[in-house]
Amino acid sequence: MALRKKPRKPATFPRYNLPTKKYCYFCKEEIDYIDFKNAKMLGKYISRYAKIEPRRRSGTCAKHQRMVAAAIKKSRFMALMPFIPY
Predict the structure, then answer these.
(1) Mind listing the pLDDT tens digit for each residue in 29-79?
(2) Does 35 fall in a domain?
(3) For 7-20, what is each residue's pLDDT tens digit?
(4) Which domain, by its residues, includes 64?
């Protein structure tokens, strides 16, 4: 005779591991134009492998993420930022 298994409860995860909501820095500071000459500020949106950070990691909104990407690309073209990691 087979034993009946007890129904499993759904897995509950601890609340302390949930990431906090990220907000767009540029919306918060009401910045309309992202200057490509400000390499120090743009450096926060570059990974250690010199890749542009995605929205889910940087926390920027779609509008400002496009502006950040364009500014980084322009800054790289003008030799203000590296194409490859240091």
Answers:
(1) 999 999 999 999 999 999 999 999 999 999 999 999 999 999 999 999 999
(2) yes
(3) 887 777 666 666 77
(4) 21-77
Note the pTM of the prediction, 2 decimals: 0.75
The residues, any chain, with a CB within 8 Å of residue 69's CB and separated by 6 or more, are 52
| Assigned domain for 83 exists | no
Tally of domains within the chain: 1
Distance CA 73, CA 56 (A): 20
* CATH code, 26: 4.10.640.10
Is residue 4, in this structure, part of any structural domain at all? no
- CB distance 45 to 53 below 8 Å: yes
Please give the Cα distance from 52 to 73 (Å, whole number): 9
